[in-house]
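Reviewers of the previous submission asked for a worked example of the structure-prediction workflow described in the proposal, so we include one complete record here. The input consisted solely of the amino acid sequence. No template or homolog information was supplied to the procedure at any stage.
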Amino acid sequence: MAFEDKIKELINKREMARLGGGEKRIEAQHAKGKLTARERIELLLDEGSFEEFDMFVTHRCNMFKLEEQKVLGDGVVTGHGTIDGRVVYVFSQDFTVFGGSLSEMFARKIVKVMDEALKVGAPVIGINDSGGARIQEGVLSLAGYADIFQRNIEASGVIPQISAVFGPCAGGAVYSPALTDFILMSEQQSYMFVTGPKVTKTVIGEDISIEDLGGYKVHSVKSGVTHFVAETEEEGLMMLRKLLSYLPQNNLEESPLFECSDPIDRIEDSLNHIIPDDVNKPYDVLDIIGAIVDNGEFMEVHSAYARNMVVGFARFNGQAVGIVANQPNFLAGVLDVDSSRKAARFVRFCDAFNIPIITLVDVPGFMPGSAQEYGGIIIHGAKLMFAYGEATVPKITITLRKSYGGAHDVMACKQLKADLNYAWPSAEIAVMGASGAVQILNAKEIKNIEDPNEQAQFVVDKEEEYRKYFANPYQAAQFGFIDDVIEPRNTRFRIIRGLSLLQTKKETRPPKKHGNIPL
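From that input alone, the workflow returned the following structure tokens.
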């Protein structure tokens, strides 16, 4: 064969590989409102930056007539490119080829890019659209999944791992996204479950739809499996680009520093009036976050799940931070099983990747009741405490209003080695609120007062006395547990100055293989 003919052969093979399962299946993919594997990569990465690996790989199965159906690429597109000029590795499952099912060689392609990403210290983004294991390959496909899971585990805390689910993700396939740092689902054709509706019906007799079993609403609101939801795939891919802008390339680097046009000493007078006089009246902590961060930009994580806790990314003077905040606007900001787990995972991510943590506290305590106790609130609350106590990144805590009981300890108190603990004048730091405390401390006196009016007045007086001592931040400040009581409108400047101070922070923990976090 002449040299020119060899060049033509290469070009033809590349064209065949880019067609995946062929024009008809690409049309069927588009008819469902879904992009192809390559279209997703093109939208995700900087234009012209994608370098593909293993375009000519095919499966090695000779059973069930699969030897007659070999497609170049074998159902997954892999390689590397850039996002805003920063290197990322990517794999995108191709539903047009065997329904995106995973084979031995399909898995090897993914393992290769994950190994390369670990070598160079760059994030991995996986785009999932697969029918699961390729049944015809049996244990080889199962081994392929396990190889990927092992890489997910080894890469955890070393490089950021992000999963997008833009189609089916079922059976063993769900565990790779579950092992990554963040999952995004789209509202179009996106679902995740370990066992599908048919198996569920057969085994336990439950009749349930795909959407109700594993749709985006289930996983964004109830289970907390997914961190982000996008209306369309295009929107989702743009969200992934934005998310990466807050993250470092790996655990040895810092997040990129952005030029900041928002004055660091900007005064926000509205914050001096945002806390209601009535301690039981709610307000939206998102209003406070928006007022203090750069240009009001906040990327919330898990926005629909455990809404009594807010977590997400923002910047102060161009520096990326993670924000954890109780949300008084939902369940009074109480800590429960879901909110504790949500915040603990986020804190651990930030600590793994050198992202400072800003904590805004307004917590009345832990949610009472048998449902919480049976659900393991003791263990889940301990997760959050463990995460804060283990974290060595800069930690700045600001108590806005209530900080009661064990929840005070859990929310990045001074004893959990928070670096700077500030409080607004509205802060109340105590074992419990005035009403409950008086009923316990003065139970005998209250019982001995026969006249109802006198009894009521006695309770009011004692509550006022209790508030005098505890419904303020000054007792905690007397013991040095609060470093300073600050004017709310100056919060932004105090955080930025604190972050600047803590840039050279060095803190270590005793040498060990790893801690035993209460799971």
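The chain has a mean pLDDT of 94. We consider this example representative of the routine output the project will generate in years two and three.
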